[in-house]
Amino acid sequence: MAIIGKIRNRMGMLLVVLVGVAMLSFILGDFLSSAGFFFSGERSLVAVINGERIRIDHFDKLVKEKENYYMVINNKESLDNAMRDQVVDDVFNDLIFQLITQKQYDRLGLRVGSAEFNDMLTGEFIHPIARRYFTNPQTGQFDKNFVQNYVNNYLLDEANISEDQLPAWRNERLKWSQLEEYIIRDRLNNKYNNLIAKAMYVTSKEVVSQNLETSMSADVRFIAKNYSSLPDSAIQIEKKDLQAAYEKHKMRYRTDFASRSLKYAVFEVIPTPEDRLNIYNEIFALRKEFEATREDSLFVLQNSDSRREPVFLHKEKLTAILDSALWDAPDGKVVGPYADGDTFKLAKRILEKTSPDSVKLRAILIATKLQDGKERPGGKELADSLYGVIMSGAATLEEMALKYSDDQTTKNDSGDVGWVKQSAPGQNLLIDSAFAAQIGKIYKLELPIVTAIFRVEAKSPPTRKILVAFVNREVVPSKATENRVFNQAGEFVAKHKTREDFERAQKEGTVLIRDEYYLRDNARQVGGLEDSRRLVRWAFESEVGEVSAIEKFGNKYVVAIVTRKRSAGVPPLEEIEEELKPFALREKKARKFKEEIRTAMEGSKSLDDIAPRLQTNVQTATGLNFNSYFVPGVGYEPAFVGAACGAQKDNIYGPFQGNNGVYVLQVTQVTPGKAPEQSELRTKVREMSTMAGYRSGEAQEALKSYAGVRDYRYRFY
């Protein structure tokens, strides 16, 4: 019994411990997985701007608001991918302005007061956006009264707006608020840039000095000891050499953004000759049916890849094949299949006619159906009334179009549609009617969703043309071809697991391997890969050496490997060792060459004595000045140019280190510079304007850099 008691006691303690551990694990697990703690909290960050941590829920809310605004101003129900990308960029830039730029403006005391803002709308100095936006539809000119009426209308309380007008009023008010914000921000930016521009000054002495330096010239004799003359394999690079190169050059690699470098294999899916033959046979099988059918538009819709309506063509618009086969052929004639680029086509002549190519049309369009398909109350009655007024002579079509037309594109032009071309029969009933109408006569035409009141004002001269229908089939890869290329990519993945594997395949040339260097986190695509944003996201979520799954972009299968990972700021030595090796090699070669040259210079009084000891020749360069960038026979050598322009005549100067070698030079001739001939004031203004132009942009970038902006949008978009 005692033993059983001990077991019971120990089991009780064990159960207490187990239950306690389980409860603690449950609590900690729930705590650690909650948003905002450790990794999950960091993963919700979309940006860090001036210390502000922007989380995805807040950022996404701003994106949706901006998307709504873009849909309103563009009168669209949805946005395409390009516009969505633009919205995300705009929201990010808005946050940059609010959290960095605006705060800087506040510190400087920059403001746009109400009087100043009103002056930009209705005063003496009208803002360009206001001029463009507030145009009187009747005069086509900027109108201050039009601005005031517009603003007063959208400053009203919603309670004063009728229910049927409220949606449109809200949309216009949204437009106005965004316009107001843009004008104010633009004025603040101009003020800030002007502050910087006015701080740029060039003194008279600087103008004279610069002119003297750039107009002087020097002729030199020199000896060059090029780095390329010593093989890299002859130099041993040690860790201390790389460390020294890092300390000297690390700021070259400092960035305000993260980046990745990739190698990626591309497997393009293109049609094979067998694929082309199969598609040719498919469209060839349609020829007899195409000849026999009388429902040409329906046949095209059911059988053609492009589904293009029949079109009237002049003789000069026909290709050589169609001109010879269809122009004088009987109606119903079919040509093809024939190749047109990556497409096989059948072409059928339907009919011939001689008629004008286009008509000049003016029209009033009155909507008779609502967007939900229901009848618009009073729409038909309004159209009938307008037609009666115009036909009675009480008002002109132009006057009624300006007041009542629902077609916003032509309303402000008094219903002027302009010249319209002939369409395929039945494609556009209004245009068909216009071509059949008499010039100058008023017509009323009831269409499915609108009633049109129109007048044809002119017609082009009649010309001969034929109506042609096309059936085409694009030459695309077959499923078998697609599978074959995918399997090739799969075989590549199985055999290539490291960067060295990719580099070997790149050298062998058996697979197309491309490089992408310094890919930014906000990049929309990699190289020329179509719609490859998700590859960018993968690169930033992966580690160096990680190989991607097989992904398809457009007609290409891609397999990528991350070769380099860079964080914002100054990268550590380990990340840029490869880039630093050329600098380290150059430094060691330069030290060696300097010692050799100093030894050769001992007891020598001329370059002609020194050159044979170095087993090289004396070279010459003429006409060097401070505007020189390249030295003949040497290359891009700012240090050489500086030495040549600053050395005393006949003195031997060196050895000194350059980009491409170590040099010793002697100035043989100096042509003094000239004082400015043109107006000193004009030169100063030009120089200050040049300085101000790029300093303004640098100031904005400096603000962002100082604020420590970190962009993590790649995680979500």
Structure, explained:
- The relative contact order is 0.14.
- The protein is extended.
- A hairpin with a 2-residue loop joins strand 14 (551-553) and strand 15 (556-566).
- The protein is built from 25 helices and 21 strands.
- The protein folds into 6 domains: 2-33; 114-198, no CATH class; 217-250 and 577-671; 259-270 and 478-566, Chitinase A, domain 3 (Roll); 273-355, Chitinase A, domain 3; 358-459, Chitinase A, domain 3.
- Helix content is 47%, strand content 21%.
- The longest helix is centred in the first third of the chain and has 34 residues, at 166-199.
- With 717 residues, the chain is α+β, with helices and mostly antiparallel strands.
Return Rg in Å. 38 Å
State which percent range the strand residues make up.
15-25%
**Strand tally, please?**
21
Structural class: alpha+beta
Proportion of helical residues:
40-55%
Query: What strand line-up does the widest sheet have?
Result: 16-3-20-19
Unreliable spans are 1-40
N/C terminus separation: 69 Å
Q: Which geometry do the CA atoms define?
A: extended
Strand count, sense and closure of the main sheet?
4 strands, antiparallel
Number of helices: 25
As for the number of domains, it is 6
Q: Please state the average pLDDT score.
A: 85
